[in-house]
Amino acid sequence: MLRKIFILIVSLSAAPGRGQLTDLLFPRVADSVRQMTDALTRNPFANQPINFSGDLLGDTLNLFSVLPIAIAKTLGSGNGVPSLINNNNLAYLGDNFISDYNLGLGNEDCQLSCDQLIAKYGYPVERHHIITEDGYVLKMFRIPSNGPIVFLQHGLLGSSDDYVIAGPENGIAYLLAKDGYDVWLGNSRGNKHSRRHVAMDPSQGEFWDFSWHEVGYYDLPAMIDYALNSTGQEKLKYIGHSQGTTSFWVMGSERPEYNDKISLMVALSPVAFMSHLKSPIIRLLSPTGGFIHAFVKTIGLHELLPDSNAMKLYRRLLCGTGPIVEILCANLLFLLAGFNVEQLNVTNLPVIYSHVPSGGSAKQAAHYGQGVISAKFRQFDYGTTLNLDRYGSEVPPDYALENVRAPVSLVYSDADWLSDSRDVDELYNKLPNVVDIHKVPDKNFNHLDFVFAKDVKYLIYKRLRKLLSNF
Ligand SMILES: *[C@@H]1O[C@H](CO)[C@@H](O)[C@H](O)[C@H]1NC(C)=O
Ligand SMILES: *[C@@H]1O[C@H](CO)[C@@H](O)[C@H](O)[C@H]1NC(C)=O
Ligand SMILES: *[C@@H]1O[C@H](CO)[C@@H](O)[C@H](O)[C@H]1NC(C)=O
Q1: Who lines ligand 1 at CB under 6 A?
Q2: Are strands 262-268 and 236-241 parallel, antiparallel or unpaired?
Q3: Residues 33-47: pLDDT tens digits?
């Protein structure tokens, strides 16, 4: 029943001219869906952590589980129904949760930018601007050294900040710098560091006409060439997280000459095939069947915004209500990617919240949504007519993963909401040069844990370090 209602709501609200019927049937939901669409067309980039004085721990616990699980089931996620509030997470939510969180609000790191943080913790830092072939102005940060280059590329809605906000003890950028690497931090088009173009402005829809295809086709090659040119090195080691892996597969297939510039590619939470994806929100945003054109048209060319109105409905469905839930579900990125309280440093959460999400285009999310439905790793689907113009075929072409000749290491986990092990298997079978594949030995390890986990040093970096020194 729930499933039917949900599909009905989503279909009705997307079909032009049916708005009134939706209003009649489900006034509150219709309102939220409209707010979401509205929010996608506006541009308030509010990203401040909120101070909760919460005292109603008991009440909140009661509200946790029923609705989210029902919705996750509705969304057809099959076995291992994901809910943000699962038993494992509950076990780690104690009386100290809110006070630890509020303690973190006083941390000055909340106010510091990526380069200010790097400088604060005693490392040299440089800023670089790179212009892509198609005119986007990207900002890179560098922790310079004479060592081999390691290039770090962030995930969906992320930025260079992702590799430093876990703090000086756990931030992967710092760990690499301590080991003597020349660390370059990329920022793809549209995130908060790369909101510039030689001719367009972020207020224009055209500015947002890109998905991770363009990140892989234009941004990565431009940043990689720039880092290699600046240092005179011939190859670099690439570490990508999430979309930082998707865009790498795009580059490796579409511009295969770039494989020669990579001595090792490490994929943290590799994302290419998505048919088993667990994230309820991305599933909810995924276009189905004939609904695809309406969806793409509705979502349009816009910035993907963490606007609170936009996500209110999802937050309510996935998390219920109450102060704890509102802290954990307050952030769009956690809402999309899930979290694992066991590996969350709650005191550090305000620092993370004040730096993520970092912005991106709605088309990036839509392109992922298409992959969930098509079960293919292929270019953006514009609908039959436009596909014919653009690609010469009614369906978009698959990415030629057999072209990705660079040595690849895949690091994945079972609980990852965005990178399911079955999808990683499929990727593994299609990539021609996988030199290492490793499952993180923690059954609750989730998507964002690859960069923010309390134990990132032991669960990720220890092995990464050995691998990097071998290539
Ligand atoms: C958060 O709330 C507590 C209690 O109301 C207050 O003492 C503290 O100053 C607040 N912190 C911030 C950063 O607003
Ligand atoms: C790198 O250097 C070469 C030769 O000096 C030059 O042709 C090329 O345009 C440079 N590329 C970038 C991205 O700076
Ligand atoms: C948690 O974060 C706080 C504040 O950022 C930091 O001082 C502390 O060392 C971190 N703890 C762990 C276990 O990483």
Answers
A1: 51, 53, 102, 105-106
A2: parallel
A3: 444 334 333 322 222
